[in-house]
Amino acid sequence: MVTLSLLPVKPTMRPPAHPPKAATLHDVAREAGVSPITASRALSNPGVVSDATIERVREAVARTGYIPNLLAGGLKSKRSMTVAGLVPVVSVPQFIPTIRALTDTLDAQGYQLILGQTGYANSREEKLLNTMISRRPDGIVVTGLVSSQAAREQLQRLGIPVVEMWDLSVHPVDMVVGFSHLKVGSAIAGYFLAKGWRRLGVATGDDLRASTRRDGFWAAVGHEGPTAVVPAPSNLEMGRRAMAELLRKDPKLEAVYCSSDEFAQGAIIEAQSRGLRVPGDLAVCGFGDADFAAHLLPSLTTVQVDGAAIGRLAAQLIIDRCAGRAVAQRIIEVGFQIVERQSTAP
Amino acid sequence: MVTLSLLPVKPTMRPPAHPPKAATLHDVAREAGVSPITASRALSNPGVVSDATIERVREAVARTGYIPNLLAGGLKSKRSMTVAGLVPVVSVPQFIPTIRALTDTLDAQGYQLILGQTGYANSREEKLLNTMISRRPDGIVVTGLVSSQAAREQLQRLGIPVVEMWDLSVHPVDMVVGFSHLKVGSAIAGYFLAKGWRRLGVATGDDLRASTRRDGFWAAVGHEGPTAVVPAPSNLEMGRRAMAELLRKDPKLEAVYCSSDEFAQGAIIEAQSRGLRVPGDLAVCGFGDADFAAHLLPSLTTVQVDGAAIGRLAAQLIIDRCAGRAVAQRIIEVGFQIVERQSTAP
DNA sequence: CTGTTAGCGCTTTCAG
DNA sequence: CTGAAAGCGCTAACAG
């Protein structure tokens, strides 16, 4: 797949002979005829500097091509203007609206989100946390609840704002923004039961939150039923396989809950490929309300969760704390709702 | 959608009374009974330190809970161990394998990828570049070719490795890993023509690279035909709309190329919802070979591009340069291939 | 193999 | 409103 270019280029190695020295604040100050500290203030705290000086410094910046060194600034001021974000893997569609909202909200205040991947096995969590801390973020956002006691204590000792998200706890490390996966599971079960369906199935990823939804589902049903579990992250292909497995376990299934919309889409395709009509023969409900869910044939009933709101709120909590403002709510429960579409319409 | 928790929590504000002071290398050195620089070497260059000393330092680290401060280290050593990555938006499925591969490959060498979003309008490119530079990355990876001359010169002056990716140029800013979008477009057209199809259509996003593919397509056909253009990023919903538009322009279309697989999926669904059979009445080809493409009904013919390889190669180029190794190829052309599946099978 | 010296580039005091 | 002094935490460079 990878073909090397045949252009006859010779090995090269930059930087060239003259490693170009970037201008520092000192250079700017000299250009502007002021002291370095005045130049610093003109740029980061213009309120306390005379307009004339600001103008001179601005010009000096333009002439020298000065770009501030945030590493140096952060070292002294103890504010790196970065926020660490821990996600299972960056490629999970589920969290992408959250990542976007985090990035955008933080960016608007000058903060940079630094993403790290924990993987679905929580083994890397502590190690990754250390890597992140070594960059001295001003805040940390974690997907899910921090499980290891060591990590919880370490986070608490840090003394920086921490937000756990996409789940709920009455004892967060610091703050939490999310919803109850148990409630989601039982809500879906309740919805199926209210429709009169009794032969139910679950196709689910094996991560902690998806498993909690599954538990909530069967708890509400009152007994366990056919369940297909696949390793996270679940995708369309896995959805097809999981549905095949469920239909083996019970060929007369009436309704299936899937732990993601991609997963549900695969499940529907598998059912259709076997001649089953959805929803005629089999109803399917997904989770996440992905952007495509409303536009499939049949359109997909799913659980809507406002991932972007989670990201926005998490970012705002961090920002407020960093600005020294007390936050009104340490625990924010965002709602969810079942969006009924064709895939479960009788 | 957002409901606040009703738990009666009172506003809180961390950090608590005693802002816990993190241990520094000095503390470790004192604990271990060595000088700070020896402690430093024991941790980052163990080869030159005696085993006994290393052991003592290790213990001191464990006892103090020391976590290195990379900002301080980077300030002195001029190596921040970060690489800036510029993407249009983090949520484009197209680039996610690349982002993953970048993250993982860099991470394996201790580098942290710092993502920034340029947006599809290139207006933010220069501003974002400055933001990134202010964090003094050791390398920069850009999606697409850097268009603005000012930005190109700035990048060149920086004297750090720069990789442009997902496109090709004989005059890259520094290095480039990608493929020719013009070739992709004409390859698809050639494929359609070879099948004997003459009533062709194009549904495409409006970003630069998708537009280049479209140009390559019609150039190979020899004349322009029905084209639906939607604002990037294209998704399933837009695919449905674009197909609706194309069918208005020519109800007897025989084959349509879509600029992404999500887009193609939407196009197929729209065609099916109008009673058209794919591929019986209408053939559809996507772009990207997303993970779901092989598992749709009909499975989707598409252009496979190894986005993960692009990410790996880009990361490796940066890593090699940072390690002072000359790279063999400044211009790496990765291949692409049309993967024929049911959606274009006669 | 280990230590001393001297900063990296910036911003926080504290004084004018 | 502006400046001088000091040092954030670490590591290059040079000695020993």
Structure description:
The structure is a homodimer of 346-residue chains. Chain A is of the alpha/beta class and 346 residues long. Chain A folds into three domains: 25-68, no CATH class; 80-179 and 307-334, Response regulator (Rossmann fold, 3-Layer(aba) Sandwich); 181-304, Response regulator (Rossmann fold, 3-Layer(aba) Sandwich). Chain A contains twelve helices and twelve strands. Chain A has helices at residues 25-32, 36-44, 51-64, 70-77, 96-108, 123-133, 149-158, 181-194, 208-221, 236-249, 261-273, 307-322, and strands spanning 82-87, 112-117, 139-143, 162-165, 175-178, 200-205, 227-230, 255-258, 283-285, 302-305, 331-333, 336-339. In chain A, the strands form three sheets. The first copy, chain A, has a six-stranded parallel beta sheet with strand order 2-1-3-4-5-11, sandwiched between helices. In chain A, helix 1 crosses helix 2 (36-44) and helix 5 packs parallel to helix 12 (307-322). At the A-B interface, helix 4, helix 5, strand 2, helix 6 and helix 7 of A face helix 4, helix 5, strand 2, helix 6 and helix 7 of B. Chain A binds a DNA duplex (16 and 16 nucleotides) through residues 24-26, 34-38, 40-41, 44, 48-50, 53, 68-78.
